[in-house]
Design goal:
- With about 425 residues, the protein is an alpha+beta fold.
- The protein folds into three domains: about 15-100; about 105-205; about 220-365, hpI Integrase, Chain A (Orthogonal Bundle), CATH 1.10.443.
- The chain contains 18 helices and ten strands.
- The chain has helices at about 15, 80-100, 105-120, 130-140, 150-160, 170-190, 195-205, 210-220, 225-240, 245-255, 260-265, 300-310, 345-355, 365-375, 380-390, 395-400, 400-405, 410-415; strands at about 20-30, 30-40, 40-50, 55-65, 75, 270, 275-280, 290-295, 320-325, 330-340.
- The strands form three sheets. Strands 1-2-3-4-5 form a five-stranded mixed beta sheet, covered by helices on one side. It has a three-stranded antiparallel beta sheet with strand order 6-7-8, with no helix packed on it.
- Helix 4 crosses helix 6, helix 6 packs antiparallel against helix 7 and helix 10 (about 245-255) packs parallel to helix 14 (about 365-375).
- The longest helix has 24 residues, at about 80-100.
- The chain starts with 12 loop residues before the first helix and ends in a 22-residue tail after the last helix.
- This is Tyrosine-type recombinase/integrase.
- Keywords: DNA integration, DNA recombination, DNA-binding.
């Protein structure tokens, strides 16, 4: 190849018709060229670029629009061929950079790194996130895609192919976990990933708000329904031999409105006077792992907790349950330990819900929704309700806006005054005469 590229007129079908059969090149930049290989019945576009080793690599792009009109896919104009050349070269150079940095970083590998770090941080080896991500992401074609080639279309396609019978809550949690895993990989491996990867993740996993809002409105319970759940939990606890462990867990979930992942980390020392100090969630990257939210509870709740707070060390887990082991063909109780994951409540919750005569779709998280709405209806400021439930005011306003309006309706009605005429029982005051 000569040192100086001799460019050919390949920009229009008319110009290309006067060329001799063979290869003709035109520069896109000093190391990237678009080629036109003319044959007997038309020609094809070819991309050529210099590799890291100093040689050149080529790839066929498509057919030139000599005899057929361009469609932007298989038949390309010169301008479309130039765009395709840039895309092909960018992809191959990204592949080279990724290969030079080590083994290819796939979506599945990014998820595994995220789960390992998350489980080390929370000291919990049985996280629900692992089973969700393994089943719904790693086992799908998305898991094999390398991060440097990931596109918004890949993420959108994955979301659109989710099973129709998958619960909205499961979809939302899986999307949030996947987003956290990919964002962590984009931050940790930014030297081997394209700069636009953060935008791809954000746009490809954008969550629609309609699903979350409907789910929350359907799960708000009345105070009497919450009491029915607590009574049912006490009955199931007694019938199945939980020794109070199940009843106390459900009671604290209802009294605090906290997530199960928070209350299971409470210690005996977190029960202070008429409050329970609830650990903040592990959500986000902020340094708040040791923080506590002081939630006021009633004397009835404190009395129910007395058997597990009296005479125990302040560092001991507040909520525990029996762990069993298999001996032969039977299971026997082995030791007591803290609750570990929300899934442990799934089986007894079915019986609790049936005894409380609630709708089939009612989930334990309904206790949190109901607690938030209870605070709003009591007239508490949105910011205080958000702080007590370890969330943001924006999230409260986004998902519970209808209840905020209802709660403030009485205040708004007090500001309404007659504007057309004064009420009959109102006597207008005579104007004071000014002294001369």
């Amino acid at each position: 190849m000569p040192r100086t590229l001799v460019e050919s007129p390949v920009t229009t079908p008319s110009a290309r018709s006067r060329l001799t059969p063979g290869m003709h090149w035109r520069a896109v930049d000093p190391d990237v060229h678009v080629g036109y290989r003319k044959g007997v019945r038309g020609g094809r576009w070819v991309a050529r670029w210099r590799t890291r080793s100093g040689g050149y690599q080529q790839e066929v792009l498509g057919t030139a629009d000599d005899a057929m009109p361009a469609d932007g896919e298989g038949v390309l104009t010169y301008a479309q061929a130039v765009i395709r050349v840039r895309e092909v070269v960018a992809r191959h150079r990204a592949d080279e950079a990724a290969a030079a940095a080590g083994p290819p970083l796939t979506v599945a590998a990014a998820i595994e790194e995220y789960l390992d770090e998350r489980e080390r941080r929370t000291a919990d080896k049985k996280r629900d996130a692992r089973s969700r991500l393994t089943r719904h992401v790693v086992a799908k074609p998305l898991g094999d895609i390398t991060l440097h080639t990931l596109t918004e279309r890949d993420l959108t396609l994955w979301r659109n192919t989710a099973p129709s019978d998958l619960a909205h809550g499961t979809i939302r949690r899986t999307v949030n976990d996947l987003k956290a895993a990919l964002n962590r990989a984009a931050r940790v491996h930014r030297d081997r990933l394209p700069p636009h990867i953060a935008v791809v993740i954000k746009n490809g996993l954008a969550v629609t708000e309609a699903v979350a809002t409907v789910a929350r409105e359907a799960q708000v319970l009345s105070d009497e329904e919450v009491r029915a759940i607590i009574r049912a939990a006490e009955e199931v606890d007694r019938e199945q031999g939980w020794e109070g462990d199940l009843h106390r867990l459900v009671l604290i979930l209802a009294a605090t409105g906290a997530r199960m992942s928070q209350v299971i980390r409470c210690t005996v020392g977190d029960v202070v006077e008429n409050r329970i100090l609830v650990p903040t969630s592990h959500k986000g990257r902020g340094a708040k792992a040791r923080s506590r939210v002081a939630v006021r509870v009633g004397r009835d709740v404190l009395d129910a907790l007395a058997p597990v707070t009296t005479g125990r060390p302040s560092s001991a887990p507040l909520l525990e349950r029996w762990r069993s082991k298999q001996v032969g063909i039977t299971w026997v109780r082995d030791r007591r330990g803290p609750w570990s994951v929300a899934a442990e409540l799934t089986r007894p919750w079915v019986t609790i819900r049936e005894k409380a005569e609630l709708a089939e779709g009612t989930v334990p998280y309904a206790l949190r929704h109901s607690s938030i709405v209870r605070g709003l209806r009591a007239g508490l400021p949105v910011r205080l309700v958000a702080a007590l439930h370890d969330t943001s005011s924006a999230m409260i306003e986004r998902h519970y806006s209808a209840f905020i309006v209802d709660a403030l309706d009485d205040l708004a009605s007090a500001a309404v005054v007659p504007l057309v005429a004064a009420p009959a029982d109102v006597v207008p005051l005579r104007p004071r005469r000014r002294k001369k």
